[in-house]
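Cross-posting from the modeling subforum.

Setting up a comparison between two proteins and wanted a second pair of eyes on the formatting. Protein 1 (sequence, then structure tokens):
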Amino acid sequence: MYEEFVRNRITELRIKKGVSEYQMSYDLGHSRGYIYNISSGKSLPPLTELFAICDYFEITPAQFFDEKISHPELIQKALEGLKQLDDSDLLLILNHINRLLK
């Protein structure tokens, strides 16, 4: 079950990023078939490589495994920006979020 999730999540994030399996393999420093082998179920990345894949997508491992997040890279960028705001700005953003969710 988790193996399939990892394969599908990598494929989903790779497609959203607009890179091929070959390009992602190359960017991660592996042979051209590395991501293909993961996506096809021939292998799974070791934990250290999964962390590198998360870094590649600019997300945390928690965001990688949260299937409810369809665009974890955007959520991560938003969180990084929110961390730099003061309390009054955070409240303003929270009000906007609440209004959009209505």
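Protein 2 (same layout):
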Amino acid sequence: MKWNLRLAAANRGIWKASELQRMLAEAGLVISAGKMSALWSGSPASIKLDDLDVICAVVGCGVEELLITEPVQAIGSADQQQQEAASVPSCGQAGPQVRPKRHDGRSLPPA
């Protein structure tokens, strides 16, 4: 997904993050400067659905204009995927030990 608040706001004549922040506050959504910066710069880590509703109402756009889908590119060819699937052991066979990875980049504690 691509976050597109700055372009949606610019299409409606809102050119500054501080202007949008003031408009959101008038609508009842008080956003800190740091959160507003993340929303405006295009890299928010998360956003509440209630906040998204208020942003859409203030900017005057739909969610589909703020959140733009991007197609995911397949990694590897179909032949490679078939070879990998064939090399995976079945349920009764012992295979390599699988260790889950954290999504935040931190390491797991020692076993």
